[in-house]
Recover the amino acids of this structure.
């Protein structure tokens, strides 16, 4: 049995392409793998808090020395990390905002990328602590940023997500793009169809 963590980051509802695609993927997955477990988190509609001064103090203070204030400040991070680590596979849908990720998803990353929990550091450098996981990231993009194109450098989303998840040890990452969404109906419909085909293929792997 596989435990999937399904996360949506778009603040939109039914008009969200990334949400629609991730929902289709999960529904198809459940049909194919009815005994698997799905945990859902919607940070687009229920965002996590930003890191605070108390959070930083708590993250770098042994838990047995936490004051009540520090314990409260770090509680959501502990819960999110426990949830993240309990999953075997991740399905994250993330729209592109200004060529990168939305602020709510950055806030989520800041809660889960944490020394001593998802990575360690010593005299030899950094080490990721999250291993043997698989990730599918669905990205909705208004433009198109393929490798070799003049606009490729505008995509700061893909390299950052590959870097930050690789930093904590996750390297088996599949990116599925619903791009060209603002480039006319024909390009939009083709991009969505291509993304749907890629997600169907991902279910088999």
């Amino acid at each position: 049995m596989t435990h999937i963590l399904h996360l949506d980051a778009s603040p939109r509802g039914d008009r969200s392409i990334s949400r629609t695609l991730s929902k289709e993927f999960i529904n198809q997955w459940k049909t194919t793998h009815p005994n698997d477990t799905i945990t859902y988190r919607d940070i687009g509609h229920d965002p996590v808090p930003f890191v605070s001064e108390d959070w930083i103090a708590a993250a770098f203070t042994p838990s047995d020395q936490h004051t009540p204030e520090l314990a409260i400040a770090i509680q959501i991070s502990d819960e999110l990390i426990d949830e993240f680590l309990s999953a075997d596979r991740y399905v994250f849908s993330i729209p592109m905002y200004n060529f990168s990720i939305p602020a709510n998803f950055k806030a989520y990353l800041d809660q889960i990328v944490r020394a001593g929990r998802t990575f360690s550091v010593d005299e030899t450098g950094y080490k990721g602590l999250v291993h043997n996981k698989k990730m599918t990231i669905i990205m909705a993009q208004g433009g198109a940023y393929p490798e070799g194109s003049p606009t490729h450098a505008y995509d700061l989303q893909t390299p950052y997500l590959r870097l930050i998840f690789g930093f904590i040890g996750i390297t088996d990452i599949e990116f599925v793009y619903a791009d060209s969404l603002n480039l006319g109906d024909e390009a939009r419909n083709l991009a969505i169809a291509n993304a749907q085909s890629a997600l169907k293929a991902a279910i088999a792997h």
